[in-house]
């Protein structure tokens, strides 16, 4: 293997990125093993881990596991069912549903949880008041401020991830297997249970594990729905440890190490499940994927689709719209009480909405450019230049996938506490880049796979330098994939909460942080207007993303590649 100057440069660049990723994680581990003895002095100690045995911490851990398991089951059952309906059956309007089912993906659990406080508050929630008015119940038919409420809301907003991860497995199957089962007298449901689902088993298992990881590290839903009602999770405990005064960074780091261990184990099994996807049958005979006929159940399936969209998208967006245009909210609809004052208040004197919006826009756009540019260099170094140690580098670069955002935020906060980056937008930007670099890298890698290495060999044979080949041949060919990756991480940055909440200071709030604060200090109308504004921004960006990606291989495959 020749050590050319460009290979050495690419190796050093990749090593520098790995160090950038490793530094905050090492800091978290070190902090978890230290005990503060003064303002600036520390001693090595296992006291932080001993505190984990406290009953309230064990209770929080139990809540985290229960919520994560419940959300996983709910999201997996609904997601697999909807994915199967739109890919394998003759469901009416299935192409439209394929797009509509992903709307919650482009919103966020924070927006969903705020909307559901207006829908299912025990006293003033629209659904509960409607039920009492109709004589169905004298109390609350659904209390969103409960463990069950958290599971339902979080599960609904994790369904799109299951749809994305299982859709490809369903599409790739040879439909002749299902038709053979039908020819042997098996009903549609028996065929689905005995043939289709087992073949998609690895993809379903991988999706379930990923939703468990996303649920156990989520901060927004437990913080909005559980925190004020005595339901603590590991994520809210970490948030507490860092946000209280004086902050207990060392204990927060110990909690973070526990959460990091849980997610790492889960993602290990998820990768094993994805590696076993080989037994999903895809033949070389060019079998046409004919949809399975649902018969009399066709319209029941259609109703199930509408029911999911009602609770995951229409009701949340509808209630936010209604409250945003209302002078006051008491749980009743009054069309004589409509106003635009809530939107005026968003940008009035003393409001931080404009600052938060510009902060998020600046951070998201710039960091998206940085992570895509880094990903191009890293993917080229590992997959095309095949630098020495590329397999080890590849593993190291995917480590942030197993690190919850809260944990990474704690590591960066303590690592950069005494630097000029602390208290600025750029510390949040560094967190975005480190945490979500693997997601952009996967999207860019998928784009690179479409360009054969013969083009580089032809360019080099013709005397073109590496720089000339990259800018004149490679980048123009992979540009659609890069744009899709840019939009995907831009959307992710615009809705990110855990790291932004830990690292923000006065003047550096992002949209999600300002929205979380608005719920505590503003009227329901102003908060709803703010929530609707963020939802509109995300949906517009999602529409652009969908328009660009559907010109190529489809948006679903691009998002699945990013995951």
Can you put this structure into words, describing what you see?
The protein has 563 residues and is mainly alpha-helical. The protein has helices spanning 5-32, 47-50, 55-88, 94-100, 103-106, 109-120, 126-133, 147-172, 175-183, 188-199, 201-217, 220-226, 234-243, 249-275, 298-324, 341-346, 353-384, 390-397, 405-415, 425-448, 454-461, 466-495, 498-503, 511-521, 524-549, 555-562; strands spanning 34-36, 42-44. It has a two-stranded antiparallel ribbon. A hairpin with a 5-residue loop joins strand 1 and strand 2. Helix 1 (5-32) crosses helix 19 (405-415), helix 15 packs across helix 25 (524-549) and helix 19 crosses helix 20.
